Amino acid sequence: MIEFRSVTKRFADGTVAVDNFNLVLPSRKTTVLVGTSGSGKTTLLRMINRMVDPTSGTVEIDGADIGTLEPVKLRRGIGYVMQNSGLLPHRKVIDNVATVPMLRGLTRKKAREDALLLLDTVGLDRSLADRYPSQLSGGQQQRVGVARGLAVNPNILLMDEPFGAVDPIVRAELQQELLRLQRELDKTVVFVTHDIDEAFLLGDQVAILRTGGKIAQVGTPAEILANPADEFVATFVGAERGKRSLHLENHGHGDVLVDGDGRLAGVLVGAPTTQDKAGPASGPGASAPGVEPR
Which residues pair with 247 in a beta bridge? Predict the structure, then answer.
């Protein structure tokens, strides 16, 4: 468990990035910090591995004040994935992944063997192991970044807008890959984004931040959507624009989902259409309807 206790960060120029921030991030869950530029989300993330230290207050991991821990040792035990992957351009893929385990004392042979297994884990072909980052696509580089973040089998994985620099199709693939990895590996993930749709897709817990690291609302995606705390949250999640308010319309060949602004949002899969209202499916072979986005 990660806990922020009355954390404030004031930089040398007087800027207050975070002011009296309190939040508990549960173990083995994904907590997403979401907000616009200036909301302090990256500053908060970097406090967890002491890349940034608070001006006041404490950050605790499993009850231990990390301010008492040696920063480099702490960082080597926490996975960190950033935007643009942050790979070392002069090192091959396999050596990028093996770097931190070797710094922690693992032999080069064992670290490289483990790195190959991690390429399997993140869905990369082993044939890419001897390539350099510049020889990979953006999506492949981000997968290598995730593999490197997992290289020491950390309990905590920090992800700072890791999918923000790739195109929408690759971003959707990487999001699904992260969901799969979390199901399989059961890490405590802290994810930073400015995209509320990404936050709602990935987060077990979502913290919406105002400027200066002020919490506007914390909860599950369903809780926030069902009951926005105020006008700021409602606007941020799109409730006031009708983006989240969906209704069915029939277009001759079946029903489609349309949002409050009249835009097509998706189709219902496995549900009766308005032309067939005999009642919901039942019995052992029935399945619940889903939404297929357009």
Answer: 258
The domain that contains 226 carries what CATH number? 3.40.50.300
Task: Give 58-90 pLDDT, tens digit per residue.
Answer: 999 999 999 999 999 999 999 999 988 789 999
- 212 shares a domain with 126: yes
* Final residue in a domain of this structure, among 196, 220, 237: 237
**206 half-sphere exposure, CB direction, 13 A CA radius:** 25
* Percent above pLDDT 70 for the chain: 88
pTM over 0.85: no
Q: Which of 92, 94, 85 is nearest to 116 (CA)?
A: 94
Run of H or E residues at 3: strand 2-10
Cβ pair 41, 23 in contact under 8 A? no
Interval 213-227: pLDDT, tens: 999 999 999 999 889
- Residue 60 and residue 69: Cα distance in Å, rounded? 11
